[in-house]
Design brief:
Layout (H helix, E strand, L loop, with lengths): L3 E4 L5 E6 L5 E8 L13 H9 L9 H9 L4 E6 L4 E8 L3 H13 L5 H19 L2 H13 L18 H11 L5 E7 L3 H11 L54
Parallel strand pairs: 2-6
Antiparallel strand pairs: 1-2, 3-5, 3-6, 4-5
Amino acid sequence: MKARIRELPNGVRLAVIRNRNLNSMAVLAGVQVGSRHEPMGLWGAAHFVEHVLFKGTKRRPSAKVISQEIESLGGDHNAFTDKEMTGFHVHISKHHGRTAVDVVHDTLTGALLRSSDIEKERPVIREEISMYENNPDMGVWHLSEDVAYKGTGLEHRITGKSVSFSPTMLRDFFRSWYSPERTVVALAGAVDDDTEKLAADLFGSMKRKSAKGPKPFQDSAPMMRPGFSFRAGNTDRLHVVIRFPGVRSSHPSTDRL
């Protein structure tokens, strides 16, 4: 099955892949903003924003309300932050696809980003940072990124190393980067016409803004740098990562894959 992809008038890209044999569907809103886009002093901001967007919107004022609306229908929702993308997704019965689309849209466009929620989330993210730092398997991967991408945005940790930025800095970061021309909305599974139309209407109403950073979706990965590094730790195992450069996604040969 091949996805149908179209661009809405405001720049949002809508991708739909239907499978009538399923009884469920998934909704994903992905925004091209991740740790590689963060300026100095805001390393970890995209990951922090991801956490806080679930804390409440004007229509759904708390994380509990958001969770209950999805989970009471047998669905689940979550989010992730990567080097180049932040995503918000819901998996739910095909009978409640419109609710899933509405919740994902509301989370992305109506989040309150309250100072009180930001303060409550600081210790949660500090604990997450500590968890990764004390995991040798994750640590060696981060160490390899330090060497391979030194001096570029890909060098930075997704979680960052600090959570000291102010609520105003986080809100400004969100307003600057989370724009329709950086957004992809994907619907997959038992998607009906009404659910697809609602997604196009809701996400197509997002207001355009002047996005910062490189042009959305361009292939701008830096070349890997050769090098070697190691870190001693209190563990009885040796963790090794070896990296090799690959083919860029824009290379003509990828058309045959």
